[in-house]
User: What shape does this take?
Amino acid sequence: MSWQMLLFYSMFFLIYGLANYYIGLRGWQALHNIFASNWVVWGWAGSVFLLALSLPVGRFASHYLPHYLGKVFIYIGSYWMAAMYYLFLLLLICDLLRLFNRLTGIAPSALQGQFPWMILIVLVVTAGLLVYGTWNSRHPVICNYEVSLNQKASTLESMQIVEVSDIHLGWIVGIDRFRQMRDMINSLQPDMVLFPGDIVDEGIDPDAEQQMPDVLQSLQPRFGTFVALGNHEYISCQAG
Assistant: This one.
């Protein structure tokens, strides 16, 4: 591993650890004020610890684990990564609002001291965002853009180009989802297909890796399919 990648991973996991600590601490404080039982509080702390641990285990130890177990860790870790992002931002907004209210006293007295319930609202909102994001990712939408050129570059009157980016084919987005995208692309009868990067994720399921070339070759554009490498191809060492 190069020193650049070592530095990148060191900074990433430092920030990752601090963010998880912040989420765990705020949840601990809120639950401690709501529930009398220490089991709930310790259950929260243990859950956050295990969820935070699932990402590095899934990414770095999946090759040494049984296939199904590695996939479970990657699924849990990936969803926790998304949840952590929303939780961190929403909790930070709550803390900033509390600080602003402490300085100004602008909030009504009835809302004073409602921080624990704000945390529960944050958890519900985060869960809703994860459900919506999952549904949205499984129902890709075709967006149409028309570009007019003042000069003709060839005898063609028009050209239909399909661009698909950030597929992140791997453990979460499987080969069946990729085939679904292939069918959507072919239904548009494109003249050219562009993949501007991040076709694969950091890690890719071995079955998906073997079948991906066949899916790409089954695309039917008149003038070809063009692929550019993204950062995830380099991170996953797929660029070579």
